[in-house]
C-alpha cells in the first residue's frame, strides 16, 4: 500500500515537468489550448501557413486541408493579402481624392496645389505631432536638417537641407506636399506612409519652420 | 648667310619665344586663379552662402554626399565650375565627360540646380572653398569620435563593474561566514575539553555535553517526514498551477526573424517613432509590418554594406551599386510574434488613436529590445484588468462631457461604457 502511494507521488512531478514544457520560449510558441478556436478559418492578413497538413490532428471540417493551413493559392506567393486592383480609390473620411500628379510634375504641383486646411493653431499643432512622427528623425525638431542635433537619422544620413535657409525656405506648400508624397533627390517617397490629410497638416507646420 | 635669311630666322625665333611666353602666361594665370578673388569680404560672403546651401552635401576636406571640395579650383576651370554649380544636370546632359563620370561615380545622385545664384555669388563660394583648401582639416570630428568611443567604453564599464563587485561582495561574505563557523567549532571543542577535564560535574550534564547527533533517527522521525512531504506537496502544486497557466499563453515568445532588425537601434538610439514604420496603427485593425519601401527611405544611403541590409536588397531586387530595381521581388517572411486567438477581436486604431494608449503599455520597452519578444500575457484577464483601471480618453470629445461628470469623482473607466461586454471582443 505504501509502495503504491509512492508511485502515485512520483507521477505528480512527471505531470509538473510536462506542464512546464507548455511555456512559450525563444522560438517556441508553447502549447495552445483548444487550438481549433485559435486559428482563423478565413483568410487572415499578416498570417501565412503554407503547409497543407498543418494541424490535421485537430481538423474537424470536411476540407482536405489541416486546421492551421492559412494561405491563398490564387495570390502571388500564396499570400493572404494582395494589392488592391489598379486605380482603386480608397474611401476617406475627409472625402479627399487620391493625389494623382506624377513624380515629375513638381513644378506644376508647386504652382497649382492649395492646402485644404487653414493655417490655424489647431492645424499647426496637429501638424507638429505628425511631423514629430514622420519627419523629425531626419529633419530635426526645428527643421535644421543634418545640422540639427535632434535629427538622429539625418545626422547619419547626411545631406538633409535646413528648411529655413537657401531656396528650401522659399518653396510653396504644394511643393512640400509633392515632395512628401513622391520624394525628391535623396529623400524617399512617403505617400504610402502618410495620409493625404496628414501630409497637408505637416505642410502647415513645415511652413512655420521655413519662416524661422 | 644673307641678311634676309638672317632676319627671317630671327623673326621665327622671336615668334617661338613669344609663343612660349604666352603659353606660360596662360598657365600661370590659371595657377594663380586670377579670377577667384581673395578679398576678405567676398570670402566671408562665400562662407555664409556655403554654410547655408552646400554643407548638407559637401565638406571641404571630406567626402559627404558629394565629393570633397578641396582644391576644386585646380581640378576644373572656373567657367566649368560656374556652369556645373548653377545647373549640374544641364552640364551632364550636354555630355561633358568629366561631369558624366562624376555623376556615375556618385551613384547618380542629383545635385540640385542653384540657378538663382549670381555668378559673383558662385565665385565667392569658390573663393571661400579655395581659402579653406589651404587650411588643414580641423581635427574636431576625430576628437568627437574619440570621445564617443570613450564614453561608450565608460557606459559598458558602468554596467560591468557593479556585477563584478556583487560577486566579490558575495565571495567576501562567504569567506567571513566560513571563518566564523571555524571559530565557533574551535570554541565548542575547547569548551567540551574544558568541561570534561573539570571535576565535580553531574553525570547527566556530562552526557548532555558529549551527546552525538543521530541523523538516522532524525530522518525517520514523524515530524521530519511531515515537514518534507509538506514542502514537496507545496512545490509540486505550485509548479502544476503555474504550468497550467502557461498553456495558451505566449508571453516571452521571441522568434528569430529572417532579418536581424533591431528595435533597440531604430526606435531607441535613432528615435524613429513607431508610427513611421507601423503606419496602420492609427487607421486600422493591424499596426502592420512595414513594407520594404519604408526601409529604403534610409537604407539607400545608410549601412549599404551590411549583410542584413543585403537581405532587403535581395528581397526587392535592388542593386546598391547602380541604384536600380529589378523585377524579381520576393516577400520577406517575418515571423509573427503576437498571435491573438481567432475567437477574440482586437483593433489597434481603437486603442492607439481613440484611446490614446502608448505602444509600450502593451508591448513593453520595445525601444530596448534588440530582438522583440511578447511582453504581455495577452490573456483575457489582462485585457479585462486594463479595461477596469483605464480612464476613457474623453479629451476633445464633447459627447463625454456630462457622462464624465455623472460618474464618481469624474472618473469614467472603460468598464463604465461597456468595456466588459462579451460581444465587444467575442463575436
Automatic annotation (TrEMBL), chain A:
Which domain of life does the protein's organism represent?
Bacteria
Ranges for the Cytochrome c domain?
Answer: 122-210
Record-linked InterPro entries: Cyt_c-like_dom (IPR009056), Cyt_c-like_dom_sf (IPR036909)
Which controlled-vocabulary keywords does the entry list?
Heme, Iron, Metal-binding, Signal
- One matching Pfam family: Cytochrome_CBB3
Q: Which SUPFAM superfamilies match?
A: Cytochrome c
What start and end residues bound the annotated signal peptide?
Answer: 1-26
Q: Does the keyword Methyltransferase apply?
A: no
Q: Which Gene3D superfamilies match?
A: Cytochrome c-like domain (1.10.760.10)
Instruction: Tell me the protein's name.
Output: Cytochrome c domain-containing protein
In which organism is this protein found?
Answer: Marivirga lumbricoides
